[in-house]
Automatic annotation (TrEMBL):
InterPro entries: Amidohydro-rel, Metal-dep_hydrolase_composite, Metal_Hydrolase, Metallo-dep_hydrolases. Residues 59-419 form the Amidohydrolase-related domain. Its cofactor is Zn(2+). GO terms for biological process: guanine metabolic process. Keywords: Hydrolase, Metal-binding, Zinc. Pfam families: Amidohydro_1. The keyword Zinc applies. GO terms for molecular function: guanine deaminase activity; zinc ion binding. This is Amidohydrolase family protein. The keyword Metal-binding applies. One of its GO terms (cellular component) is cytosol. SUPFAM superfamilies: Composite domain of metallo-dependent hydrolases (SSF51338), Metallo-dependent hydrolases (SSF51556).
Amino acid sequence: MFAYKGDVLHTPTPDRFEVFEDGYVVVDDEGTVIDVVSSLPKAYADADLTIVDRSGCLIIPGFNDLHVHAPQYPLAGLGFDYELLDWLEKYTFPAESKYADLAMADHWYRRFITAMWSAGTLRFSAFATLHNESTLRLMELCQQSGLKPVVGKVNMDRNAPDYLVESTQASLAGTEELIRKSRETTPDVGFIVTPRFVPSTTEALMEGLGELVERYRLPVQSHLDESRDEIAWVRELHPDVPSYAEVYERYGLMPRNRTIMAHCVWLTDRERDVLREREVWLTHCAQSNLDLSSGIMPVRRNLDAGLKVCVASDVAGSHEPDMNRHIVMSVEASKAKTFEAGCERDRPLRLSEAFHMATKVPGSFFGKVGSFEPGYEFDALVVREDESPLDLSPQERLERFIYTGDDRDIKERYVSGRLIPQPFEDER
Ligand code: GUN
Ligand code: FE
């Protein structure tokens, strides 16, 4: 057993940080949290217990990012005078087409994984590209890194340039092959079915993917209600379906408690009911939604509607991977939304809520992850001692780290109790 000693903070509930100043997280040999305490009870004195002394440091749950595009990492910061559909055509599709080259993919996927590690993002759900070989390589590199993400080959068989499109049959066959291969070679990196978004996928493709979801009991990720032009396009393509969300539902692409829908900026109440009933994780990508002029999600309204809302990056619809930046953006965006609503209806997000949405809510996609309650996997960041001349409490130090800190402040990263060194040393 191990006892990690330091200033421990987490958010079992969204309303406040639970703080154990100079406390301990007790973890068993399998990497599961047994206890989180202010002082070690006598019972532990006799146990075979190794103290890992990080006194003066913060010990917090690792970040979980349920929406990120791995191949778009080299694109970060480009093209934000455009809105979504033009940006996809002018920047994203050309960039993703380069991943047909396995050597190029290998290099940039190493850099991407290193960026996730640096940022303290220990688990994530990534879109790859439609290329089978480089998608498998991404999964293998993730497996080597010690991080525990899920990854999906992107399915797209219509409304895409001829240099980045597959036939329906090839897309389905490639997906099934990757499901099988990854089950053999990447035990810690799961496969997630990834139709790009409704406009990119024919009905036949969605139907076939829905069958794979059912046959292999897989999770699904896609985009929903991101920009108004996109929504109008979906309405034209599927005039017979009452809402965008229900297109995914109709084709079996919204398995209960296994689905991630990115953005959800412009949900209708009808769609809120569908997402609640299907227990979908909504990813709130506030920075991306501003970078691409998509809009601002009414986070408070979605929370009040009982939806599971996470903070996510959407790299490279956004310009940086670091989850502490996205926590801040979510708070700032919700404050802007409050002004818009006349300061009455929507209470802005509190920092503890946004932190909860970047740790425990997205962590629950992976199981018991994102908190230090007993039974949770010990996924943790150790944040270095504070040098401020002010006499700050642990919570104030965490606030400063979230608002102003970066990878240089993260001393250690643990996944399921295992210390994860920097992957791919030469790639930063
Ligand atoms: N919708 C369809 N594809 C994409 C993508 O790559 N990024 C974003 N932000 N939205 C999308
Ligand atoms: Fe996205």
